[in-house]
């Protein structure tokens, strides 16, 4: 153990600063005796100062140091040294120094100088070195108490307590508690426990948050694994489909080769069949000829050979004459047929010429009629009244064409303005669509923000519910503590009044006179008092048991008052303490089963929504690629067609080719026809068409010049038409080459893209519906989780009520046993009556010391009872304040939970509104403004 050895003082209070006063402390006790002002208190103050560093009270401004005025100096140096042994038995020397300076205005200024703590590093060695630490590198106020093994609070308040502060045990309860906490060092343990509780609570909250995060991450991981498995399956399926495609492509190629060989065989078979049919026809023809020859012959069945030879000779001579006649007839026939052929050729040429001229005349008339009809139709269509009647001359036709050109220019100008307006309207519509998409995106973001806020609030609600569940205080506890505190205060007040009114000292003096009388009666009464005290213990136990029953009944009533409404709301039954736990466990299990089913439904609808979303993304990707492919094909087609329709272009090109081909075929006929007209007009001097005679040479020259100009113009027109024909044919070839592209583009535009858009629209509707289902399922799951949390809270309350009910039954059984024991004693006297009689006897008893000691003990017991009761009251006040604070925190948490529930309801309503807005935007389809595209043809010409 530690021990102080010597104390040296210089310049402290009445101790002179020029010399050192040394005090030796002996074991086990050192008594310091001296008259007032000799420095006894200064020694205690110096010990307190050297060990703790605290100056005595009311010593500010240098009052603790020797007065410089008395010393006759302006500066006084004070020093306190203490030699002591620490817990290890090592000797240490502690020193502290002070300096007080006196200024010109007689004011004192005190300054603390450096303090040191020195010791030998090895006291047993002869050459040990002294080690010294100062306040520059160590805290003297904590080092000295540490070496002494005594806390600073004990040194200040117990061992070296100043006489002006020695009455601190009689101070106020709050300051008294503070002193005792410092002495027993309870504060740091209380703080440590509070820190441990707060750290544990924070760790529990973080653990729950981490568990929720872990559960969410597990769900995301499972979802990612499912998606990866789906991707792997689809990739494997795509690879298998590619392999199957390659195999089918090889089979198609083989089947193509096989079909080609079959086609060649079929062609050869068809050729053989045709040859067979031809030979069969020839055979039948030969047979028919043979039958015809047999009809002209006569069978000579009865003739002899000589007759037959004679008949043959006659036939030969007849045949020879017939042959000669036949040869001459054939010669004449050939001559006639030659002339006939020439006549027929001439006739055919005339007929051909006549037919061509007639056809030209008909075409001319038809063209004129068609032109007249077109003019009338166009005039009627475009409201031109002056040309709605029949046109009789070419001047009116020319005027009509000029008018049409002017109107065409106006229509073209109007069409261009219409196109511009349509394009502007389309751009405005696209802008409107883009704004709607932005609004939909913003609404989705708001909806997501609401969902995130709801998740955060639910986590907060769960944390609040955990905190509420962690607070075990009830109104019954507070009520019980309040009543107990009031009872204790009343008891303390009564005890104090009783103690004040008792007059123990006077009673002791009065009873010292007859203390020796009636000793035997006192002994008998004392024995009776012991028996009654035993019964008083039983009565006290009975009272305690009844108070416990009442307290627990009040606790049950407080639980019913606090949780009864919520219990009725959740269980649909009244809160019965004995059966409440069983009922709420049944409801809790049913709710957990419902939660499991709701969770499975939520997982299913979430999976369906993800499947629809995947299909939607794939279809959108396919639509984008298809539209890109269509755009590429349309660019290729437009480079060839220059924006016109390919079908109409091919039709118009074929018509132009037919017209040019017909004109080229008519060139030779026109040349031959006009040459013949020239030849025929020279001999009879008349027109070969109308057979009218020319009046003079000039008229004939005009006719010949017209025919010759027509003949000379035909080669150039033929070359020009052939060039045009080649151009139109080349254009037709280009059109035919891109015809497959146009077919593909038409298929993509009319079939594939339309189907994809319809499917995307259907999937978007399905996705919106699935999203709503997921949100509804999630809300249902969250509500069930909240309901389970509330059921858990009610379950704990029901368990407490059930436990209290069982304890009440046990206490009532004990109360019955105690009442039965009291009834069996049979005495009517009470302990107070016996005590009064015993007190009366003790007035007469001659044993004053025993009576005096009894009264002194009674006085001390009551004082101790008052002290203990005040301690209990103080502890009850602390517990009551703590319970009230916990109840206040719980009420605050309940209010926050209700506010969060209201906020969740508002957010759910906002989420529904956002979902409806998104669904409304999704159902809006962009309006396609139709822009009329007109194919322009060259204006009609007069020819």
In short:
The protein has 943 residues and is mostly helical. Helix content is 76%, strand content 5%. Among the domains are: 3-168, Rossmann fold, CATH 3.40.50; 642-747, Helix Hairpins (Orthogonal Bundle), CATH 1.10.287.
CATH architecture of the domain at 3-168: 3-Layer(aba) Sandwich
User: Which whole number gives the mean pLDDT?
Assistant: 78
Helix content: over 70%
Could you state the order of secondary-structure elements as H and E? EEHHEEEEEHHHHHHHHHHHHHHH
C-alpha Rg (nearest Å): 66 Å
* Global geometry: elongated
What characterizes the major β-sheet? 7 strands, antiparallel
* N- to C-terminal distance: 141 Å
* Secondary structure category: mainly alpha
* Content of β-strand: 5-15%
Quickly name the level 1 CATH class of the domain at 3-168: Alpha Beta
CATH fold-level topology of the domain at 3-168: Rossmann fold
- With helices defined by DSSP (H or I, 4 residues minimum), what is the helix count? 17
Low-confidence segments, ≥5 residues, pLDDT <50?
A: 925-943
CATH H-level homologous superfamily name of the domain at 3-168: P-loop containing nucleotide triphosphate hydrolases
| Strand element count | 7
Coiled coil: 224-258, 478-535, 616-643, 753-910
GO molecular function: ATP hydrolysis activity; double-stranded telomeric DNA binding; G-quadruplex DNA binding; metal ion binding; single-stranded telomeric DNA binding
Pfam families: AAA_23 (PF13476)
Catalytic activity: ATP + H2O = ADP + phosphate + H(+)
Protein described:
Strands 1, 2, 3, 4, 5, 6 and 7 form a 7-stranded antiparallel beta sheet that branches. This protein is elongated. It is built from 17 helices and 7 strands. It has 943 residues and is mainly alpha-helical. Helix 6 (186-296) packs antiparallel against helix 8 and helix 12 (580-641) packs antiparallel against helix 15.
